[in-house]
Structures are given as structure tokens and as C-alpha cells.
Amino acid sequence: MNFRTLAVFTAIVTFVLGVGYLFAGATVVGRWQIEPTESVLLLGRRMGALYLGLSVIYFLARAVPLSPARTALCAGTALTCCVLVVLGIYEFSAGRIGPGIFVSVAIEAFLALGYIWLLLTGRRTTAAMSPPGDAANRLR
Predict the structure, then answer these.
(1) Max Cα-Cα span within the chain
(2) Please, what's the b/e burial string for 67-98 (b: 16 or more CB within 10 A of its CB; e: otherwise)?
(3) Is 115 within 8 Å of 78 (Cβ atoms)?
(4) pLDDT band per the 50, 70, 90 thresholds, residue 137
(5) Domain span holding position 72
(6) What digits encode the pLDDT tens for the residues 89-111?
(7) DSSP annotation of 130
(8) Who's near 62: CB < 8 A, 6+ residues apart?
(9) In a domain, 88, yes or no
(10) Which pLDDT tens digit goes with each residue over 25-54?
């Protein structure tokens, strides 16, 4: 999988989440068997705005070549998705959320693995393209 494909997929997922939280928050949280109180829906709408912003970021970054900025985007996304996977499993095991969370956990795990893969393969690609003494010079 390449960065472009994963970034477009991420943009689509975050766009759907953003629209869902903004306009159908009760349905989104209902999938997880959480009561859609006014407080929950307020936080959901705010998350919806953040997801829409992330969608634009990923869509516009889809053609960014391997760089420190792209590495930062991949690392941040991988960490975020890993934490979301752990939290989803933890909240389900504690009985605070329903089994609908596993759809989200599966997508988050896929994204985490995809971005980790890109980080690992990007590092190998960078090392292979560097001049022989370059790694030593970067350490100084």
C-alpha cells in the first residue's frame, strides 16, 4: 500500500465520521450503545469539526513525497489509531460500550498498521537512497 492510497482512504473515513458526528451524532454513538445525551452530542459535533479538518489535511497531503512532514503525519496517525484501538477494547471489556465498537476498532487497526508499514518502508527507502557516509553525518 502506498501513502497516496492510505491518505485518500483516511480522508474518506474522516469525512464520513465528520459528517456523521455533525448531522447524525445520535446514530453514530447509538452504534456503540452509548446514550446520546446533549453533552455527548455536543462533544460529537465538536469531534465532527475536527474530523472534517483532518479529512482536508489527508486529502491535500495525498501527493506529498517522503519527507519529515509526511513522516510526522504517518507517526501521529499511527499513534492515534493504536491508542483508539486500545481504548475501544478497554471500554468494551469494562462494559461501557457495546460490540459496535469493533467496526471502529477494525478500521483503526487497519489504519495503524498501514501507517506503521509506511513508516517502516519509508525508513528503509530513505536509508537505501542515502549516500554511504550520510547516516554518520546525521548523527553529528
Answers:
(1) 60
(2) eeebeebbeebbeebbebbeebeeebeeeebe
(3) yes
(4) very low
(5) 3-128
(6) 999 999 999 999 999 999 999 99
(7) S
(8) 3, 4, 7, 8, 11
(9) yes
(10) 999 999 999 999 999 999 999 999 999 999
The pLDDT of residue 136? 42
* Cβ-defined contacts of 43-47 (< 8 Å, 24+): 45/21, 47/17, 47/21
Q: State the DSSP string of 1-40.
A: --HHHHHHHHHHHHHHHHHHHHH-HHHHHHHTT----HHH
Residue 101: CB partners within 8 Å, gap ≥ 6?
32, 88, 91, 92
Residue 38 lies in a domain: yes
9, part of any domain: yes
| Helix (H), strand (E) at residue 79 | helix 68-93
Identify whether 95 is part of a domain. yes
Contacting residues for 85 by C-beta, under 8 A, at least 6 apart: 105, 108, 109, 112
